[in-house]
Amino acid sequence: MRLIYLVFILNLMLTTSAHCEQTAEDWNNKGNSLIAQSQYDEAIKAYDEAIRLDPDYAAAWNNKGIALKKGGRYEEAVLAYDEAIGLDPDYAAAWNNKGIALKSQGNYYEAIKAHDQAIRLDANSTDAWYNKGNVLMSLNRYGEAVLTYDQAISLDANSSDAWQNKGNALKSIGKYDEAIQAYDEVIRLDPSYADAWKKKAAALSAIGRYDESTQAFNEALNISNRKGDSISNGRRSEELDGSSTGISIRYKGPDSDRGEEPDSGAV
Question: What's the pTM value of the predicted model, to 2 decimals?
Fold first, then answer.
């Protein structure tokens, strides 16, 4: 019995020692892995442990904000981003992510300010320009949205989601020919994007090009049937992309936001 007790104590000591040896960066990276698995509550716990070990760890605060936002806890997410920004006012990604959370709250004007600050800090941030465009779309400021998506496209001409949303904005202000050109760019980049075909069909119909509209709609229907999707969905699934700073989670589809990138925090 005594031997069993000694083995138990030894295992406990080893486990505790291993736990104590984990650094703030280890916990931050664990949180990033949990976000990639959509385990947001567990990710928050990991980031909290990183912050407990290093309260000035701006990346952990930023990443905690991402996990909170993805869990629908927008107000807490904004507070976490504010902590990151308080520690590092030049943290462009945290400003961009704050804008995404504010938009999710319907706080559009503050969201624009956050994205503008991200752009001031990093004028080459495609994501910040793109997300600002999405906020402007939510405010029905379609002309401004077109110009903002143009900025995103000038930085990344292969951004199919920026082309798609530019088309949506142009269609909303009755510029159907230009909208069709934008949707054609999306289709060139991704011929299997059913929603681009569907939106192109609507724009063609609006200017009386009915035969072409029918062809585009049929193409959208065929693609959706092959994928087993609903043609009215207009969204595609999340894609996880590799990033030098961790995990980049990009949402493909009209008016969806992007750029929430858990930061590895590595120096």
Answer: 0.81
